[in-house]
Amino acid sequence: MESEDPIIQVSNLNKSFGENHVLRDFTLSLSKGENLVILGKSGSGKSVLIKCIIRLIEPDSGEIIVLGQDISDLDQDEMDQLRANVGFLFQSNALYDSMTVRQNLEFPLRRHWTKEERAEKAESAVIQALEDVGLGHTIDMMPIELSGGMRKRIALARTLILRPKIILYDEPTTGLDPITAREISDLMNSIQKKYNTAAIIISHDLNCIRMTGNRIIMLIEGRNYAEGTMDELMKNEDPKVKDFFE
Amino acid sequence: MGLERKIDQPFFKEVGEISRFTARFFREVTKPKQEWDEFINQCYWIGYKALTLVSITAFIMGLVLTIQSRPTLVEFGAAALLPSMVSVSLVREISPVITALICAGKIGSGIGAELGSMRVTEQIDAMEVSGTNPFKYLVVTRVLAATVMVPILSSLAIGISLYGGYLGTNIRGEVSWTLYVYQAYDALSYGDFLPSIIKTIFFGFAIGIVGCYKGYTSQKGTEGVGRSATTAVIVASLLVFILDLIAVQVVDILGLT
Ligand SMILES: Nc1ncnc2c1ncn2[C@@H]1O[C@H](COP(=O)(O)OP(=O)(O)O)[C@@H](O)[C@H]1O
Ligand SMILES: [Mg+2]
């Protein structure tokens, strides 16, 4: 019974910025262990959607349930606790550019581990997370010294350090060359296997979607316009859906 | 309707926003778990950034003010008053205001640009997501550091500018260091130092708040960051003058002159 429940359930989500109605009654659900892809044009509201899920953006209306908790009921402290279970990989990576890689990875621990825990285990947690993304040697480097693909990996390591149950990826391969993009997709898969995470992946990189996604939701005109596997959607005759697979 | 239109004007909106930001500062500063490490970092950084410029400017101001005041005083046969007159203006007005303006330029723009680029590259969002309160970590520490460091820098500037004044007196005259200090301190009282220190506390706070506000609420894009940095300097400098004007009135009313 427990495992049947979706771990993220978004219902009738609405969000406007002034006259710009970005999300209209958007609905999705994510099951345990699943990799769900959100596909949509640039500016269609994909980032707004996942930022609502982690409550970086306050929706106008609708219900968001994450790991069994309605996030609009949570106070700041409870929300922070929940956020430890939800990793967020920013499209821009959002690495702290005044800090070393080690400090970047240690930053999320400040809130969630006690001082004693940090003194005891932070070092090994950082090394473990860096090894998970294959970049152990960069520990004392600054973000500016890293290539685009490496920065993406470090950002991923930083979300992994708290061992989240869910990871939200915002266009993880956009702006990377095809080879690096494939390496990142591989990495996403291996992480899912190793830590048994579920993920929402925003992407329009068809290779990445094919490699990582189990199911796709098309976000068009603010709605959950079509839903299915890659093969199902490719057979869809609707011109707005077809556009994406040409 | 008339009032509504007025409130809609960008200037009033900005004032409202800054007030709200300041109110949030006072709410967050009392919440538990202070970020002492970051506060110390920021104090160090502000000192490091502004120290050289403040020292050089203070020295030159002391020197120049003395040299330029001499002819007038000589004309009235009051050359002996030179140390007292110069030291009073250096302590009361010139050192604090010059220090604050330099800090508005260096610290205000530095904070505006730093927080602005953290905002547009989503680093502030990343802190939020990782459960660290970015307002507490970034804004509270910087505002407190500016509030503490500007008075310290200003006190230093007072010392250096008085020394500049001494050298200026000595170019022509033959006033010994002891006599100069004696005359200067004779002219000065707590009523000169205390208001001077107190107003620099307000200057520092204003510089910190404006820099943080501009950066923290920066608009997307690289020009947004640039705009945050420049408007932080302009608004902070303006505020320094306005606060100075208020301080003069308050000191006057309290009879501290
Ligand atoms: N903070 C904001 N303020 C105003 N408009 C916003 C904000 N964030 C996003 N938008 C608007 O919402 C729309 C969707 O943005 P976004 O979710 O970033 O698109 P994408 O699907 O490319 O990720 C865009 O039109 C954008 O201009
Ligand atoms: Mg986006």
UniProtKB/TrEMBL annotation, chain A:
Q: Where is the ABC transporter domain positioned along the sequence?
A: 8-246
Source species, domain of life: Bacteria
Protein keywords: ATP-binding, Nucleotide-binding, Transport
Instruction: Give the GO molecular function terms.
Output: ATP binding; ATP hydrolysis activity
Annotated protein name in UniProt: Phospholipid/cholesterol/gamma-HCH transport system ATP-binding protein
Automatic annotation (TrEMBL), chain B:
Q: Which GO terms describe its molecular function?
A: phospholipid transporter activity
Question: Which first-to-last residue range defines the signal peptide?
Answer: none
Which parts pass through the membrane? 45-65, 97-116, 137-163, 197-216, 228-251
The upper taxonomy is: Bacteria, Pseudomonadati, Bacteroidota, Cytophagia, Cytophagales
User: What's in the keyword line of the UniProt record?
Assistant: Membrane, Transmembrane, Transmembrane helix, Transport
Compartments, record wording: Membrane
Protein origin, superkingdom: Bacteria
Give the membrane topology.
Multi-pass membrane protein
By what name is this protein known? Phospholipid/cholesterol/gamma-HCH transport system permease protein
Q: Give the main location.
A: membrane
Q: Does the keyword Transmembrane helix apply?
A: yes
Q: Which GO terms describe its cellular component?
A: ATP-binding cassette (ABC) transporter complex
